[in-house]
Structures are given as C-alpha cells and as structure tokens.
Amino acid sequence: MEVGCYCKLYKTCVDCCRTLHYRNFKSRGKRKRRSFCKECGLKRKENLNKRVYRPTLKEGSEIKVKAKLSNKRTISYKVSYDKAIHLVAEGMAEIIHDNLIYKLYDRVTFRNMIFERDNYKCVYCAKPGTTIDHVIPYKFGGITSFSNCVCSCRRCNQIKSDIPLEDFLFYYEPFKEKSNITIEQYLSNAMNKLSEKIKEIEEVIKIYTVIIERNELNDLSKQIQNLERSLLNLKLQLIWQKKNRRVIGI
Ligand SMILES: [Zn+2]
Ligand SMILES: [Zn+2]
C-alpha cells in the first residue's frame, strides 16, 4: 500500500503520479484541492500559453458558455453549435474544450470598447451616442460582436429597431439634414424599391410552392410504395395458404 492511500494529508497527482502532502495541491475552496500538484499546474499553464493544445468544438452539440458578469460573478448558459462557432470566429469567446467556450468580455467592458472605437458618436447621424445597436438585429441571428455592434444614439436605435440595414439607410436618408432630394424623387425611389422587394418575394413564393408540391408528391409516392408492399404481402400469404391446402389435401 502506498503512503497516503487512505490519508487525507496526502494526495496523488494525476499528472506526475507522485504522492505529496496536500499543501502541494492548489485549493479550490470548500476543502477541495486540485487533482494535479502545483508543479504540474505550472506545466499545464505553460502548455496552454504555448497553445500546444488547440481544442475544437464538437459539431452538432449544444455548447456551454461561461461568462463573467460586470460584478465578477460567473454565469453559464447553453447556445447552439453554430452560434458558438460564430462567437469564437468573431473573437468574442475562446474554446476551452469540445463543448465549452469562455466569453472574453463582460457587458460593460464590451460596451465601453465599442463606444471608444466609434468615438462616442452615433454611426448613423453623428450625434453623441449612448446605446449599442446590432447592425444585423438579434432577432435575425445577429450576435453581440465587434463587427455587428455599433455606437448609436437612442433615436436612431429606436427607429432602426428590426429593419434591415439597407432599408433603414435608404428610408432614413431623407431625415438627415444634408439630404437634398425632392419629395417626388424620394417617393418614386421608394416605389421602385418596393416593387423590387415584391418581385423578390414573389420569386421566393414560387420556389416554395414548387418545393411544397414536390414534398406532397414524395408523400404520395411513399404511400403508393407502402400500398404496393402490403399488396405483395397479401399475395404471398395467399400463395402460402394455397400451398398448405394442397399439402393437407383440402
Ligand atoms: Zn504533479
Ligand atoms: Zn443617431
């Protein structure tokens, strides 16, 4: 039996397998200690810094996110794989292991960084900005990242809300002071834009109806296949019954 097998004063390190006094293991609070000794902890840290270990996320699974709040409390929640990949690609989070990412910025730090980048000015009207606007709205899959967030004044943010950026810029332009198009020009532009949108929507509807029709056809062909199969089974049963009758001699 090794020293310390049943003794709480000694512990075996999972990395170097040495049995050492418990003081050689870093505390995790509440009478718990790390499973590796302090020396091995340093080695692990070095390896992490060298980025020898580059984890990737497990595809298709739900990914846990750990984040620090502004008051330094840690919270965790789950997001989809696609969103996690997006967050990592945008430099908002780091992969810890195959189903855990760590968010690098808390809300307040992130907001301040955006404000500083945009000089505390609304990107839409250049007045002092106090809010953060998602360029692609959160509703439509836009994430809170440096490329999707801009400094915006309250008014612009409220008017933009869930309108796509191009539409917002187009319709919003006349409200700017520097705009010098007449109301007729503005209306005809708006009409053109709307008719283009309607055409787009009509095309999408066409595509969808075709898909729906095909799906119904698929369902029908499946039903026909099923019917054919059950017919075949019935025929086989009939043949077997006839054979049996012949054997028995009825
Ligand atoms: Zn060790
Ligand atoms: Zn503004």
Distance between the termini: 82 Å
Order of strands, main sheet, comes to 6-5-8-7
Stated plainly, the CATH topology of the domain at 107-175 is called: DNA Binding (I), subunit A
Query: Which ions and ligands are bound to the chains?
Result: zinc ion
Portion of residues in beta strands equals 15-25%
Number of distinct beta strands: 10
Oligomeric state of the chains in view: single chain
* Element-level helix/strand string: EEEEHEEHEEHEEHHH
Characterize the overall form: flat
Determine and state the CATH class of the domain at 107-175: Mainly Alpha
- Give the count of helical stretches: 6
GO molecular function: endonuclease activity; nucleic acid binding; zinc ion binding
Keywords: Coiled coil, Endonuclease, Hydrolase, Nuclease
Pfam families: HNH (PF01844)
Domain HNH nuclease: 109-158
Task: Write up this protein.
This protein has 250 residues and is α+β, with helices and mostly antiparallel strands. Among the domains are: 1-53; 55-104, no CATH class; 107-175, DNA Binding (I), subunit A, CATH 1.10.30.50. The chain is 46% helix and 18% strand. It has six helices and ten strands, in the order E-E-E-E-H-E-E-H-E-E-H-E-E-H-H-H. The protein has helices spanning 38-50, 81-89, 107-117, 154-160, 165-172, 183-248; strands at residues 10-12, 19-21, 25-29, 32-37, 63-68, 74-79, 93-97, 100-103, 131-134, 149-152. The strands form four sheets. The chain has a four-stranded mixed β-sheet, with helices on one face. Strands 1-2 form a two-stranded antiparallel sheet. The chain is flat and about 80 Å long. The model is unreliable at 174-178 (pLDDT under 50). The structure holds zinc ion (2 copies). One zinc ion (ZN) is lined by residues 13, 15-16, 18, 36-37, 39-40.
